Amino acid sequence: MTDLRAFLSGQQALIDAALDRFTPAESTEPVTIHKAMRYSLFAGGKRIRPILCLQAAAAVSDHAPGAMNAACSLEMIHTYSLIHDDLPALDNDDYRRGKLTCHKVFGDAMAILAGDSLFTLAIQTLAVIEDLDAARTVRLIRELSFASGTVDGMIGGQVTDIESERQKPDAELLDRIHRAKTGALLRASVRMGAICAGANESEAEALSRYGEHVGLAFQIVDDVLDVEESSEALGKTAGKDAAQGKITFPAVYGLARSREMAIEECAKAHDALAPFGPRAARLHQIADLIVDRKS
């Protein structure tokens, strides 16, 4: 098996090429919105969600029609959420991945529209899949839209996160925020890969458990890094969670226990992959990478 870093680099290149195909060129009218969309979409993301989608599909079958469309739709939704998160009305961040945020380059109005456009493009990217039956295409759209939505989805988690600022740190509230805000889309990533690959019920359930545990580990590590790492290392403003009075894992459990919890969630993610044997090797590696990362 090739080195993980080389493998991920190769996967990122494939995903970037597909995103380039699916996204209107900067020269397409109206040019400003397409420049803004592409500015954030190609700002150097790790492509964790689309890679999880592709590798979940690979754990089930060598044949997964529509998997790249599904992978790219996830990255479009994720990027749209970051553009909106960075706006002055929300987290008010000037930098993302070491670059000026979309609204700092194109203005608030165009950044809002760029996020809206990426959401629309994500659905379009699923709707144009040609080699997947209509029933599975509908399931993909359902999975993505619910994971992005207001009821136990990304937007719902963001709302709860905003409304809980300056409140006393509470474990139940923390769990509700992050299972929706971050966890829902990460869980959807593996579930969408499973759909494309034609997973049976037990396989889909195992990948769902993996996604839930990886999603929680991802958020715990994010919260820890916001405390421990510099803005330069993170590529965004460090210490924002504490400054805004966010309810985070370190705020509720402390740094030491938070680190332990991330390791525990990683172990549960590994256990969930048992039915897939060596086909899930990359998913195992990605789980470890999520916990060990420094940015």
Describe it for me?
71% of the residues lie in helices and 1% in strands. With 295 residues, the protein is mostly helical. It has a single domain (4-292), classed as Farnesyl Diphosphate Synthase (Orthogonal Bundle), CATH 1.10.600.10. The protein is built from 16 helices and two strands. Strands 1-2 form a two-stranded antiparallel sheet. Helix 4 (67-85) packs antiparallel against helix 6.
Strand content: under 5%
| Total of domains | 1
Structural class: mainly alpha
Compute the separation of the termini in Å. 25 Å
The first-level CATH class name: Mainly Alpha
Overall helicity: over 70%
Which segments are poorly predicted (pLDDT under 50) over 5 or more consecutive residues? none
Please give the CATH architecture: Orthogonal Bundle
Strand order of the largest sheet: 1-2
Number of strands: 2
Tell me the name of the CATH homologous superfamily. Farnesyl Diphosphate Synthase
Shape: globular
Mean pLDDT: 93
Radius of gyration equals 18 Å
Would you tell me which CATH topology applies? Farnesyl Diphosphate Synthase
Order of helices and strands: HHHHEEHHHHHHHHHHHH
Question: What does the main sheet amount to?
Answer: 2 strands, antiparallel
Helical run tally: 16
